[in-house]
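Try this one yourself first.
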């Protein structure tokens, strides 16, 4: 079993997957910052400062009127935080769109590189062995 595990780990796919996960985690931090620090404030400005995060319903417990979601959770009451869920969905859609645009542009660059490789002119080919032999035969025939 240990040898099978070593073989599994040594395969290229596992290493590629590990690198992908590490890069994905780093990329997630970048995209999260992009959404939270740049895009959401612009959306808030355009939508008049709408932020659903603090929208919730108290199912049980005593929560002061107008308390933030964090303060409501600290009271120990049962909180139905639908606003945080709506914001999570919006953030997901924004992140998915950003990733879509990134993948779309990378694919365009790959396609352009592939077309350049196809369009590259081939080096001129020399005569084939048969053509050389026929030339030699014709030259010998003229000498005779």
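Now uncover the answer:
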């Amino acid at each position: 079993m240990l040898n099978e595990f070593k073989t599994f780990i040594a395969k290229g796919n596992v290493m590629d997957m590990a690198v992908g996960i590490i890069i994905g985690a780093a990329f997630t931090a970048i995209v999260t910052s992009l959404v939270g620090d740049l895009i959401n404030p612009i959306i808030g400005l355009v939508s008049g400062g709408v932020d659903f995060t603090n929208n919730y319903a108290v199912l049980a417990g005593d929560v002061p009127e107008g308390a933030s979601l964090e303060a409501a959770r600290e009271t120990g009451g049962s909180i139905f935080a639908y606003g945080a869920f709506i914001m999570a969905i919006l953030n997901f859609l924004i992140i998915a769109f950003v990733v879509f645009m990134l993948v779309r542009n990378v694919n365009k660059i790959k396609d352009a590189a592939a077309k350049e490789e196809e369009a590259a002119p081939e080096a001129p080919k020399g005569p084939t062995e048969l053509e050389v032999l026929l030339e030699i035969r014709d030259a010998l025939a003229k000498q005779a």
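Discussion: The first strand starts at residue 57 and ends at 60. The longest helix spans residues 82-119.
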